Amino acid sequence: MNHLNFFINNFIKQDKKQRYHFLINGKWQKFANNIKHIDKHLNHHCVKIDNNAFEKFTQIIKHYTIKSGYYYDAYTNGLEISTHCLDNIHDDSLLICPDNNIAFYFHHDNWIWFCQIKP
């Protein structure tokens, strides 16, 4: 399964899913340019972390023993990265961890959105 499809199916509001599927399946550059607005379309499975965001992100990674994820930003399309190498995460990017049913959106205002499908 495409990791972005996992993200869209689980963490985007119902009325926006079709548009995002369309963008990732043929309009990649338009999707990449608009990733900075994705927080407006996240659903109830996502929570904004605005205080000590990176510290809490690190705690979540450890708590759920997340070893790697798939990274997307305006320049990178699904690069698998280890959670030990997260120093180069940019604003307005996604880290999708489908094995853990978790995703993160790194907002340009230094917030992190934590998205999770609970078992």
Brief rundown of the structure:
With 119 residues, the protein is an alpha+beta fold.
Structure description:
It is globular and about 35 Å long. Helix 1 (3-11) runs antiparallel to helix 2 (14-24). The chain has helices spanning 3-11, 14-24, 28-34, 53-63; strands spanning 46-49, 68-72, 77-82, 93-97, 102-106, 112-116. It has a six-stranded antiparallel sheet, sandwiched between helices. It is α+β, with helices and mostly antiparallel strands and 119 residues long. The protein contains four helices and six strands. Helix content is 32%, strand content 25%. The protein has one domain (3-116).
Relevant terms:
alpha+beta, single chain, six-stranded antiparallel sheet, 119 residues, globular, 6 strands, 4 helices
Describe the secondary structure blueprint for this structure:
Layout: H1 3-11, H2 14-24, H3 28-34, E1 46-49, H4 53-63, E2 68-72, E3 77-82, E4 93-97, E5 102-106, E6 112-116
Antiparallel strand pairs: 1-6, 2-3, 2-4, 4-5, 5-6
Helix pairs in contact: 1-2
Listing every helix as H and every strand as E from the N terminus to the C terminus, the arrangement reads: HHHEHEEEEE
Q: Categorize the overall geometry.
A: globular
Sheet-strand content, in percent, reads: 25-35%
Q: What is the mean predicted local confidence, pLDDT?
A: 91
By DSSP, the count of extended strands is 6
Terminal Cα separation, in Å?
A: 19 Å
CA radius of gyration is 13 Å
How many domains make up the 3D coordinates?
1
Instruction: Determine the fraction of residues in helical runs and give it as a percent range.
Output: 25-40%
Instruction: Give a quick account of the main beta sheet: strands, pairing sense, barrel closure.
Output: 6 strands, antiparallel
Instruction: List the total number of helices.
Output: 4
Spans of at least 5 consecutive residues with low confidence: none
